[in-house]
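REQUEST ID: PR-0412
SUBMITTED BY: lab tech R.K.
PRIORITY: routine
TASK: structure prediction, single protein chain
INPUT:
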Amino acid sequence: MDIKKIINEMQLTFSNSVDLKCRPLRVGDKEAAVFFIDGGIDRDLLEKDVIRPLMTLETLPPPYLESLTKSVYFSEELIPISVIKAPGAVADGDVVLALDGEDEAYIISLRKPEKRSVVEPPTSSVLKGPREGFIEELKSNLSLMRRRLKTTDLVVESMTVGRYSSTTVAVLFLKGVADDNVVKDIKSRIALIDIDGVIDSSYILSFVQEHRHSIFMQAGTTEKPDVASAKLLEGRVVILVDGSPIAITLPYLVFEDVQDGYDYYSGDWRASMIRLFRMIGALLTIFLPGAYITLQTYHFQMLPLKFLMTLMAATTGIPFPPAIEMLLVLVLFEVLNQASLRMPKYLGISLSVVGAIVLGDTAVKAGLISSPSVLIIALSAIGIFCIPDQVGTMSILRFLFLLISTVSGFVGMIAFAIIILGYLASLDNFGTPYLAPYAPRVNPDLKDGFFKNSTSLMTRRPYSIPTANRSRQKNH
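STATUS: complete
OUTPUT:
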């Protein structure tokens, strides 16, 4: 194809976008052109290792791929593609070299995307253990995983998702450890995704979950390479998405959210105690507001007399019924939380102080709300961050239990809790029961349950998760 025609068609395809750069040059006895998107490649390497060597050539004999490979100072392999596919390669961030009169072009990968440094993720800070976190650049994330799992059994398969974004999605698993059926099922679900664009891994998350309309998460997420590597060693599959620092891990157990990477870098008894506190925090978040309304409205005789007298003194004169008052305080805290998250960093701190201290204290002194209600919601708000990955789910459950307790007291709360437990017991993803190892009871997996045993005693991979190899230590 004529080089001028190639240039014109490339510019028309990109609608004459200003960031599309075309560099005509002469390579030996042939006219040529280099195409790339400005800002996404290393221009110094392009000039030094590609353009200069090509312009110094006196002849370019066929086969052209062999001649270019010998002439260009480029470490990676030159990939021949059809001229028709050249715009797609340019849009993907590569440099494309086209030759006059040829139907074949050549991809030269000189990508240099802007990226932030590898630092400790803000959502997963630890006292002990690795402090590296994933970033938005896929190649860097893959290198972090390779550095921890130096084995040829670590398989990385790449897929492209999104009609406009053409986002690279990497599926990682350990060959001989991960269950082949699980890997195949996950890849088939990703392959069936037909969407305009994938901006973050949460887009993929909504497609790989078994029950898409459930309020409960059915896939694990992490920003830490050490946690993702540990999941791979247990037989799970990790999904990394270009442009997202959040990795997805499958299959998933709800009890994973009670665990934390720090548990495995601290003492066993300390880890067990921390897990117990996390569960207490989660239960306080969900049940405490509803239980407070129930005790105050229906079952006040269950309260000790002195506590009841204190409660009555604090709530006397409040113009709202207990349920409306609690709902008002809960909505106020949710609004303040969302406002502080979306405000600039330093203004957010000021807003938190104003909202929590000034506004709350003023409302109590004005007699609009009672101090016990503020205390109950404050305890609930603190407990919700004991399991940060379930913040959304626990917020919804807290509202539901509050509404049910208003209508039917402890009877309704207990009935609703039984319904929720039955529903959770019915869930599974990729052959893994959602409530394992407790429902169903899997005795070997209890070594890493509420109470954590020593790592030396965990000789087998979790039986709750399908895997091709149960042995975790030699001779076991």
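NOTES: Residues 326 and 373 are 6 Å apart (CA to CA).
REVIEWED BY: pending
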